[in-house]
Specification:
CATH superfamily of the largest domain in chain A: Alkaline Phosphatase, subunit A
Structural class of chain A: alpha/beta
Order of helices and strands of chain A: HEHHEHHEEHEEHEHEHEHEHHEEHEH
Oligomer: homodimer
Largest sheet of chain A: 8 strands, mixed
CATH class of the largest domain in chain A: Alpha Beta
Number of domains of chain A: 2
Helix content of chain A: 25-40%
Radius of gyration of chain A: 23 Å
CATH topology of the largest domain in chain A: Alkaline Phosphatase, subunit A
């Protein structure tokens, strides 16, 4: 993996001051045209954002890189200035973040899929017929009761959803040099977690023993009679957000995934609101004690994923109406953007660039009084990569020293 | 540090011909809006540049990377096509460049700060009360007289300004694996120049001996009674500009820093004018013998640093009026840009992108007849990194071979 030269230079230039930076993430805010009527952002009535746009810098960002559709984890790492191609999180850790499992630094987490195997041990359904949460919970309860943890290890199971669960091995001296057991195919047995041929992991042997026990314990289950484990990973040893930027950060986020990814980079969660009004009020309040606020609004993504264009427009307008409460606290630098686009026409995250609005004291001006994808693409900021947003905000807040004499 | 893949490819494609490239640097030319009246460049009357803009490509560049405010050294390296994140110059060498000290390849240079220490040897003022140039010169004179150079080494001191000075160790076989002695704190003693724990540098021991002598020599000084040394460095062993581009270059630059950074990459200084009229005339004259001219105009930066908006406007207009003398010599490719922005509203270098005008024979056209930050940000060149400018100029001058068959 290449070195994050840019991020390291930014970190070396970071300087503390009292200026406040607010990063307001409207999750999935970008979109596509809808039958010639424009994107949700174009169709929404946003008088407050439009007025702000007239005295802000506009632009757009590719969260990861051109053409790449971001997951929520990498999308947010990018907004936090952590190059997601360098700072890759194991799937096990992402699963733990998604349900806000209190992962400890020495834990090893893996994502589990329940699956169905036949009497020969060959997989017949890699998702166990997509069992519901109720079956998932019932089966995990059996596992918790019956499993005999190998010496020195605690084994924790948590429901995620449907056929998905989380397994955490807790103990001292555990490693994560452990292979996926999912063969990504049916008609064959699960793989061993030992990474052949070198087989050096002590923890892989522990994982193997647990999986063998699970198979016996679940033998009589009609669907979820086996597990497949993927992405064994430990909490990553990265420089924290406060270390990297000399900021005193706070997260205002109502959903587990975003609290989790905040915690991943050392941003403490100070409040868990979900409505736009509460988010803006709580972000404003957090500015008293903190120099950086990450505020997260989920519903622009959720409506996008549901294919609900009118809902997305309404949610954008909800945030616009709430905005004056945040503006009253007068952040020195305010960024409004998303972690990715979620066009209702696609009902999914997408690779489209994400619009950016950045209010800051030292701008060139000349932008239009409108905040949408079309206005943003010819704005002062141009098209950048998501990881460039934090450095730009730091610069505008006077928090970056000069590079070289 | 990562490899400069792009720069190496460009170098491998470079081909010689008779075409002339002129890089006219208006130092610090970019700016911010000034209370709704626009930037200095927007407010200046520049009929010659505007006419040129109508038949040129416009764009903007980030000299180092988004959000990073460039020092003069890295800003110019970028314009010369040397990625400043790869080609990093030690502070000692930058100090030597800034006063145009004739550094030799085997020299080791360090930046000195005079400081004040108490009777226990603890630092009480890291800048010795910011002594004036007169005290600086008087104390250096004492050092020159009293220092007993360690065997085989010559020790040279030069005034920079206020509390800042330059120390150069001259001799054979010197290394620069030497630590900073500035602890970046008061109430503690200066650090040893030996980089513990490995301590392998012969020259660090020499530096230590010199610093110990200095402390004794200056013991009776009221303020400047000790030195702190930073950024020990040797002249970097880089491919020169003529090697890299197969160009026969010349620098036309009136200020020491810019002559120094030209020399750093092997561009000889042929003339030292400071007014716009002289710069344009001398650049035109240099085109007779040279295929690349770097011409440097300082006052657009100086007025910016002074917060003097009318002065900056006037200096831009001065250059505009001088331009026809340069155009008469008909450079094949002419670039007008800056090494960074210096908004009078910030009184300092800034991170804002720098406008570019590039006159060249094979353009797409369609640009506005105006040269300013707003026109440039939607121009043909788009937003590039500073290091991409030289390759673009080389291409337009027909000096780059095709990549691959």
């Amino acid at each position: 993996m290449y070195e994050d030269v840019y991020g390291n230079v930014i970190s070396s230039l970071a300087a503390e001051n009292d200026k406040r930076i607010v990063l307001l993430v409207m999750d999935g805010v970008g979109g596509c045209d809808n039958d010639g009527a424009g994107t949700a952002l174009q169709q929404a009535k946003t008088p407050n954002m439009d007025a702000l746009a007239g005295r802000s810098a506009l632009g757009q960002h590719n969260p990861i890189a051109t053409g790449i559709t971001p997951g929520s984890g990498p999308g947010h790492l990018s907004l936090f200035g952590y190059d997601p191609l360098v700072y890759q999180v194991g799937r096990g850790v992402l699963s733990a973040l998604g349900i806000e499992f209190p992962l400890e630094k020495t834990d090893v987490a893996a994502r589990l899929n329940f699956c169905t195997i036949d009497t020969d041990g060959n997989i017949t359904d890699r998702r166990a017929g997509r069992i519901g949460d109720d079956v998932n919970k019932r089966v995990l309860e059996i596992l918790r009761r019956e499993i005999k943890p190998p010496a020195g290890v605690e084994v924790l199971f948590e429901t995620v959803a449907e056929h998905r669960a989380l397994m955490v091995l807790r103990g001292e001296g555990l490693d994560d040099d452990i292979g996926d057991t999912d063969p990504q195919a049916v008609g064959v047995p699960a793989l061993s977690p030992a990474r052949r041929p070198h087989d050096k992991s002590k923890t892989a042997k522990i994982a193997e023993e647990i999986i063998n026990q699970v198979r016996k314990i679940l033998a009589d289950e009609p669907q979820a009679n086996m597990i497949l484990a993927r992405g064994f990973a430990k909490w990553p040893d990265w420089p924290t957000f406060p270390q990297r930027y000399k900021l005193n950060p706070a997260a205002v986020a109502g959903y587990p995934m975003y609290r989790g990814v905040s915690r991943l980079v050392g941003i403490p969660v100070v409040s868990q609101p979900t409505t736009a009004a509460d988010i803006c009020a709580e972000a404003a309040a957090a500015m008293k004690e903190h120099t950086f606020i990450f505020a997260h609004f989920k519903y622009t993504d959720k409506t996008g994923e549901d294919g609900d264009l009118p809902g997305k427009i309404e949610r954008i307008e909800e945030m616009d109406a709430a905005l004056p409460a945040l503006m009253k606290a007068d952040p020195d630098v305010l960024i409004i953007t998303g972690d990715h686009s979620t066009p209702p026409s696609l009902k999914a995250h997408s690779w489209h660039p994400v619009p950016i609005l950045m209010k800051a004291p030292h701008l060139r001006g000349g932008g239009p009084g409108r905040f949408d994808e079309i206005a943003c693409r010819s704005g002062e900021i141009g098209t950048i990569t998501g990881k460039e947003l934090m450095p730009l905000a730091m610069a505008h807040a006077g928090k970056l020293e000069k590079f070289g004499a």
